Amino acid sequence: MWHVSYQPLNCALIACIRYMKILQPHQISSEVLEVIHSAQQYLILVSPYVKLTQWQQLAAALTAAKGRGVRIDFFVRNDPDNAGSWEQVEALGLKARLVSNLHAKFYFSETSGVISSMNLLASSNSNSIEIGCKLETQTELDELKSFVKRFVVPHEISERPTEADLYLTKERFSVALEHYIADQTRRDARVTFQKDEFEIRAVSNTFFLYVDKATNRLFLSAIVSEAEASAFEARCSTFFTSPAFRYELDRGDRGHYSMVEGAYQPRLSTAYLDNLRLPEKKQLLAEVMTFIKSVRAFKDA
Asked: Is the whole model's pTM more than 0.70, yes or no?
């Protein structure tokens, strides 16, 4: 027979169970608004992602709080791909404090607070199933203050990403690639999208970039002459050395060009190149440029 002994619950845990109020999805935004409206001294807002363009009620509440002299500390996630969140905050005349690896979401003032799964996104407010809890005791609010000091502020960064990185996160891949090739070669380049592939005209040659949407695999190819095609097997290892590609020759026949082809070995995180995150996008731009330079050097030889 099993014997189970029950220990008394910790007093703080009992207090938490007794006073913590679980918020239903439709209640969360109104409680966050109440935190902002009732603040007289300070507001701490921790939301990795922010988009208030379609949430004018919340934007107006923050503007009003700023106008009545409330000190507002607004923490968002430090990520070049998240630059839109900083811009949303700063469009309200507030400073966005950038924190690496931020995932927590909570909002509090000197009198009340909300911990929630909800970012300050209009889409989260309108479409997502969220959960939260309301905090009202001084003990709970002091715990949130302590959390900010121990885990949020120490990870705040002082230097923002470079303008070049911010540009790459926002620009369409075709435009970014065109500018990158032109900058690297000091010559004009043209990148267009047609028939499910990118056509690249650069260094006096034509290249093609294709992504298989079923497998997220990327392929590059370049037109070569028949003489160059005949020399490919003997000279391939000299000019085509990047381990990022598997190279082969596609012999043209019946009026088709011969092509040097490179299968990009890393599998892309998404088949939609505009949606690549910054590190992956930068790596891909560099490897495409390597392929182009390798083809040019091979042809020149």
From this structure: yes
